[in-house]
């Protein structure tokens, strides 16, 4: 059988339409650089502190699935930040349903803090 027919009959792996994951340190630096140019100063401070805390908390993770999920989500965030879609971004219902009660509570606290920042201005 010719190799082209084998490829048509039995694909080796599914095609991915996303870019490969960036290494953690490069991704971390790219996010902080994007914060400099894309975020207002008060949000930049909040965003930088959050990114630093998250990357520090996930430094010692050994589970490859957690690492890939963590890097994928941060890379998606970087893509949204660079594309400018973060301003009118909305949380999808399916993403909210995947969250634990603790994550929903943290999200609620974050919402309250950002409202306070908006009221102070």
Describe this structure in words.
The protein is built from six helices and no strands. With 121 residues, the protein is an all-alpha fold. It has a domain of 66 residues. It is globular. The N and C termini lie far apart (70 Å).
Low-confidence stretches: none
Apparent shape: globular
Element string (H = helix, E = strand): HHHHHH
Continuous helix count: 6
Separation, N- and C-terminal Cα atoms: 70 Å
Mean pLDDT: 82
Helix content: over 70%
Alpha-beta content class: mainly alpha
Main pleated-sheet profile: none
Beta fraction? under 5%
Q: What would you report as the Rg, rounded to the nearest angstrom? A: 19 Å
How many beta-strand segments?
A: 0
Q: What does this entry show, briefly?
A:
The chain is mainly alpha-helical and 121 residues long.
């Amino acid at each position: 059988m010719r190799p082209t027919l084998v490829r048509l009959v039995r694909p080796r792996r599914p095609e991915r339409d996303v870019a490969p994951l960036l290494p953690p340190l490069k991704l971390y630096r790219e996010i902080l650089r994007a914060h400099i140019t894309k975020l207002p100063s008060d949000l930049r401070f909040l965003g930088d502190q959050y990114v630093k805390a998250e990357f520090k908390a996930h430094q010692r993770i050994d589970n490859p699935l957690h690492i890939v999920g963590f890097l994928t989500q941060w890379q998606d965030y970087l893509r949204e930040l660079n594309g400018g879609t973060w301003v009118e971004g909305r949380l999808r219902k399916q993403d909210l349903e995947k969250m634990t009660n603790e994550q929903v509570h943290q999200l609620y606290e974050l919402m309250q803090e950002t409202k306070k920042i908006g009221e102070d201005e």
